[in-house]
Amino acid sequence: LAGVLPAILTVGLACLTPAIAVEKNKQLFVETPDRSDRTIGEEEIKQIFNDMMAATERKDVDGVTKYLAPFAISVNTVRTLKAGNVSQEVVRLKRLEQQRSYIQQSFINVDSYDFLYYDVKVRVSPDRKTAFANVTSIVDTRTIKGPRLLISSTGITKFALVKGELKIISDEATTDVEI
Prior knowledge:
alpha+beta, six-stranded mixed beta sheet, 4 helices
């Protein structure tokens, strides 16, 4: 499973189904609220997910990570079903560099991703400065040396304007993997 878990998490990030993980009594970041006239739109967020899905299929690390804020965090609860046994692992990734490294590693282990189902529902805040997206996906993943995986994932991704740019600041997902 060493090569399988990174492959699963990349699907999570691409679907942006990986999330809000605040360590007890620690602040993630201090940022002045966006005061520009720029706002967030539902279609813009859907396009970001489409771009990330296509980048995942191409195994393009830059295309997957370019929408992540430098301080972005993700939490993915991965439940794996193999030969009738179920195991669970929670993976927490902090900051863009850690997520980028994890995605690069996963692309080494994966031959191809095929999105069989993909749905994004977006909720934009009344001030149009933040948004949440609920993402559901089913992905047929073919690993290079290991098994073929059927990965289903649901998650919530939070967006905000960071220095005037729309960025993913957190993602939380639950992923089921059948091997």
